């Protein structure tokens, strides 16, 4: 997996000035692993922090703190811009063909409509869940007496 993606593959996706961010090649690989294991953004970010197999696959040190789960949705937003999703898919197929894992059979075509809809649905669902969690935590902090009357041990 070491050469599946390189930061150079994503060079034009990011501004050239400013402070250095997370490796786009690693984020792309995290996205692939996330899809393969059917994980949410939170679960994938947690896997990067805690799982040795993910750290090994990503080439991270054991003490690497990982990243916030929101980085993955921001990365997907970048992938959804323009024809980047098609370029990413073509890159994956090229690298797999170079490794002899798949054969080239002609031109690759994708319809991003379903992919974008799934990404938007996932992001909205996570936003709703996160908003509900924050509201419940705030209620628990500010209305302990009121909440205690409603919730049994």
Structure write-up:
This protein is mainly α and 153 residues long. The protein is 62% helix and 0% strand. It has seven helices and no strands. The protein has helices at residues 24-37, 41-50, 52-58, 70-80, 84-98, 112-142, 144-150. α1 (24-37) crosses α2 and α2 (41-50) packs across α3. The longest helix is centred in the C-terminal third of the chain and has 31 residues, at 112-142. The protein is elongated and about 65 Å long. It starts with 23 loop residues before the first helix and ends with a helix.
Q: What is the overall number of helices? A: 7
Indicate the percent of residues in helices.
Answer: 55-70%
Low-confidence stretches: none
Main pleated sheet: none
Number of strands: 0
Distance between the termini: 48 Å
Oligomer status: single chain
Strand-residue fraction? under 5%
> Rounded to an integer, what's the Rg over CA atoms?
19 Å
Mean pLDDT: 79
Q: Structural class, from helix and strand content?
A: mainly alpha
In one word, what is the shape?
elongated
The helix/strand order is HHHHHHH
Features:
7 helices; 62% helix; 153 residues; mainly alpha
Which secondary structure elements does this structure contain, and how are they paired or packed?
Elements: H1 24-37, H2 41-50, H3 52-58, H4 70-80, H5 84-98, H6 112-142, H7 144-150
Gist of the model:
With 153 residues, the chain is mostly helical. 62% of the residues lie in helices and 0% in strands.
């Amino acid at each position: 997996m070491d050469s599946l993606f390189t930061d150079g593959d994503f060079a034009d996706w990011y501004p050239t000035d400013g402070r250095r961010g997370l490796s786009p090649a690693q984020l792309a690989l995290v996205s692939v692993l996330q899809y393969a294991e059917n994980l949410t953004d939170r679960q994938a970010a947690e896997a990067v922090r805690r799982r040795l197999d993910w750290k090994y696959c990503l080439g991270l040190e054991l003490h690497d703190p990982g990243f916030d789960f929101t980085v993955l949705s921001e990365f997907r937003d970048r992938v959804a811009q323009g024809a980047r999703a098609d370029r990413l898919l073509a890159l994956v197929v090229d690298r797999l063909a170079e490794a002899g894992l798949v054969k080239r059979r002609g031109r690759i075509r994708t319809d991003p409509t379903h992919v974008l809809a799934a990404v938007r649905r996932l992001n909205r669902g996570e936003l709703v869940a996160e908003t509900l969690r924050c509201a419940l935590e705030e209620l628990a902090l500010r209305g302990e007496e009121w909440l205690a009357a409603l919730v049994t041990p």
